[in-house]
Amino acid sequence: MTTTPHRTIGPQLDHAFVERLAARRPTRFQHNLPGHPLLSLDEIARLGEELPPASVSVEVGEKPIAAGAAEGVAVQVDDIGAAIRNIATTSSWFTLLHIHQVDRYQLLVDEIIDGLAATSGLSPASLRRRMGFLFASSPRAVTAAHFDIEHSFCMQLQGTRTLGFGKWADDDERAKDVRDYWNGDFGRFHTMPATTDEFEIGPGDGCYIPPWTPHWITNHDETSLSMTVTFFNDDNEDESLVQAFNTKFENRGLHPRRYGVSPGRDRAKVRFMRAYGATKRRLGMSDSGGGSH
Questions:
Q1: What residues does the JmjC domain cover (predicted)?
Q2: Is the domain of 71 the same as that of 211?
């Protein structure tokens, strides 16, 4: 994709990306994050020590691509910082979740997403619920096959990996996996989706990963460091709210129409879920959020 003269530290995108975002098409790009002072191995390890335990996820590095539930490959680590610093030899896979809860990384996430908006012509205000994640993994480690519900921008900092994309066999299979997501499995696959494309990404390379798009990543023979930033806009936020609404009623034995079948009903479901969420916030109730991976 052609880059713009506007230089940002994050994804270098042009105005053609607006159409690709709307169409949910994976898109390669370049970025300028390698060498950033907050993104060295030592700084990532320091952040891992700083974050609460619930914001650090550790898995076995070498595992099947379709690894299923995270619990089956999870690893308990006592010294997070040391394990990340020794990632080259620990055969492990670390995710630091919701790094935007730390002020210096919140500023970095906003700088990246605001820059993305500037180069592509998107309105920064339309890119909401911004989140950031950092990943450190050993040589030949695998990011298991899964899908996310956010617009995601994966940016490679160190090492080379192969990013694969897949598809569901049909709409029924997709609907089942979406329902399972809202029931707590966070989009992880137990069987391998059909491969549709593969991209090799090295330092300075990145890729837009659309919401509800099966994908996985395999490391080459070197340590990998990467960063992902995500956001919601009207498109995926509305679909997420309808899916959450539908799952609540499917769990009660009802059969609501899938998202996109009835736009009028979708709008009513979105209004209901927003009102429901606002009421929960006023009462001090909240659902625990999952990670991007």
A1: 105-248
A2: yes
If DSSP codes are grouped into helix, strand and coil, which group holds residue 35? coil
Q: What type of residue is 270? A: V
- The answer to whether residue 288 is domain-embedded is no
If asked whether residues 33 and 47 sit together in one domain, one would say yes
What are the percentages of helix, strand and coil residues in the chain, rounded to 5? 35, 25, 40
Could you tell me the mean pLDDT of each successive run of 10 residues in the chain, 293 residues long?
A: 62 96 97 98 98 97 94 94 97 97 98 96 97 98 97 98 97 94 92 96 98 98 98 95 94 92 93 85 56 42
pLDDT score for 1: 44
Q: Is residue 68 part of a domain?
A: yes
* Domain count along the chain: 2
Q: Same domain, yes or no, for 148 and 223?
A: yes
Domain range spanning residue 46? 17-233
**143 burial class (0-12, 13-18, 19+ CB within 10 angstroms)?**
buried
Extended strands (E) in the chain: 27-30, 56-60, 92-96, 128-137, 142-146, 151-158, 161-167, 194-201, 205-209, 215-219, 224-232
Q: Residue 152's beta-bridge partner residues?
A: 209, 230
On whether residue 53 sits in a domain, the answer given is yes
